[in-house]
Each structure stands twice: as C-alpha cells, then as structure tokens.
Design goal:
The protein has helices at 5-13, 34-48, 56-62, 119-127, 132-149, 160-177, 183-192, 200-212, 254-269, 279-284, 286-294; strands at 18-21, 24-26, 53-54, 77-81, 90-91, 95-99, 107-109, 115-117, 218-225, 228-236, 241-246, 273-278. The protein is of the alpha+beta class and 295 residues long. The strands form four sheets. Strands 3-4-6-5 form a four-stranded mixed beta sheet. A four-stranded mixed beta sheet has the order 9-10-11-12, with helices on both faces.
Length: 295
C-alpha cells in the first residue's frame, strides 16, 4: 500500500486504524456492544483463515438464535473449516476452530460479508455440546422459522409428515456435524423438535421435563370454555394439570394480565390445576419447577 511500518504504527496510535487481530485492522469506529465486537472479530479471523465459516455460538449470535447463557466480551470466536491435509483444530481462550465437513447447503452469507453456518447446521453443531434442554431451544427455533415461512400449521395438531418438513434441514445437517461421540445427543434433539412450542421458554421447559423424566405433555392443548377454545402451553389431561410458561413480555399490560386471570379462572372451574413459571424460575432453580409439576 506504500505505507511504511512506522506510518502504520502512527496511524494505529492516533486511532485512525484499529487492530482487531494480528495482521487484521479496520478503519471503522469501535462497535458498541459485546455482540458487535464478537462479529467483527469473527470477520477478522475469517480473513486470517480463508475458507473458514463462523459456527456454533458465533453463528447462533449472528442468526439471533436463543441461548441460555448470553455472550460476553471474552467469548471465543467459533469457526469451522472443512478437513484437509495439514489443517488442525484449535481451542484457545479467544478462538476455537473445528474441522468438520461444510456442504454448500449448510453455509449462509451474512450481509456483513461473514460466511456462517445455516440456522439448522448451527443448532445441530451445538446439540452435540449442550444439554438437551438448551439444544432443544435451538432446534425448535429452526422449526418455528420454517413453519412461519410455510404459513404456519393448525395450532392444536401437527401431522408427522409436516413435522418432518420442518426438521428436514436439521436431519440433513446431522451427517456432516455429528461425530461418534455426539451422534446420540444430536439425534435425540432432532427427534424431539416440535414447532408447536411457541417460544424459547416453552422449548427450554419441555427439555427440562424430558431431562427429569416427567410424563410427556400435550402441546397447545385445546380446552373448551364458555368463551371459546383456549390453548394451554402444556397439558396432562389424564392428571387434570395444565402448565403455563410465561415469558417476560407475554402479558405487558394490566388488561392482558386481567384477561389471563379470567382465562385461568375458567380453566380452574373446569377442574384443572394450573402451574405457572417464567424465565427467572427456570434460570434460578429449574428442578424446583419440575418438582412442582411432578407433585
């Protein structure tokens, strides 16, 4: 570029150029959030390792997929490279490089220019590392997005052929992402995916139910009331129990809270016992929530 090392050092010292990684610099202003810093660093690492693709938690961040544990400034960038002679994996506090096949259909290109694994491949990659309750959040999110693109489905029921349409991308990613050690965990997640769980909280809740060995609930269970059909997040009709996973913004006004109270009263008059929980409950003591349901 016709710039001496001394001039380059001066530009860095004066803030005209900013170093991201060894040998990679930018003239852009400093990102404002930890997530923006992470994506910028991933782009720099992709320059350092041509052919690499952002994956795992880095890809989940790019795709805005739900994660139990949020990102922080010390999060290592996760990349995947196709296996080749002479390449090695890497696992350091700032960078993690995995060697796994990367079929073209499992790679997206973000508007920033970052090559990133698709949401389905990202969910499958992470399913090999996460407990079932956390990986199911990701698998269900993929299925919900596909369901939305297909125009949705009847709320009270989901045919197996339709469920398979919404999990096809997950199933296709298994062969490339799984190893002998992770195959069982990944296949367990894919088998349990169901887009009728309408939020990350519902997916996380169901995963804890599976982990604790609770009877499998019916999803979006229809209950006939005097004001029409109401759908419960989870139901065990054989026990007369309904479970409701309340997100932090599910009822954002006094009127919505009042309407939900009336809805719950109607269900109680029909003989159901109602168990409610939220994000804070599952984050602080998920076993207490499961014990409450079991009792």
């Amino acid at each position: 570029m016709g710039v001496s090392a001394s001039q380059w050092r001066t530009a860095v010292a004066r803030g005209r150029v900013r170093r991201i990684r060894p040998g990679v610099y930018t003239g852009a202003s400093l990102p404002e959030t930890a997530a923006e810093v992470h994506v910028e660093t991933a782009m720099a690492d992709q320059r350092r390792f041509p052919g690499s693709v952002a994956s795992h938690r880095t890809a989940a961040l790019v795709h805005n997929m739900p994660l139990v544990h949020p990102f922080d400034e010390d999060e290592p960038v996760a990349l995947t490279r196709a296996p080749d002679r002479g390449l090695r994996s890497c696992n350091t506090p700032s960078l993690r490089v995995s060697l796994r096949p990367l079929p073209l259909g499992q790679v997206d290109h973000h508007p920033s220019g970052l090559a990133v694994t698709t949401p389905a491949r990202t969910a499958v990659d992470l399913a090999g590392e996460l407990p079932i309750e956390e990986s199911l959040m990701l698998g269900d999110e993929v299925a919900r997005r596909i369901a939305a693109s297909l125009g949705g489905f009847p709320r009270g029921g989901l045919a197996e052929r339709d469920r398979r349409r919404m999990t096809r991308g997950l199933e296709a990613a298994v062969a490339a992402a799984a190893t002998a050690r992770t195959l069982g965990r990944i296949e367990s997640m894919v088998r349990l995916v169901d887009p009728r769980r309408e939020s990350a909280l519902e997916s996380l809740s169901f995963g804890h139910m599976v982990r604790c060995g609770l009877p499998r609930p019916e999803l979006q269970f229809p209950v006939q009331t005097e004001e029409g059909t109401r759908f419960a997040d989870f139901a065990w009709p054989q026990f007369g129990v309904i479970g409701e996973a309340d997100g932090e913004v599910k009822y954002s006004s006094r009127r919505q809270n009042w309407q939900e109270k009336r809805r719950e009263d109607r269900l109680r008059r029909l003989g159901y016992r109602i168990v409610r929980w939220g994000w804070a409950d599952l984050r602080s003591d998920p076993d207490a929530v499961m014990l409450m349901l079991r009792s």
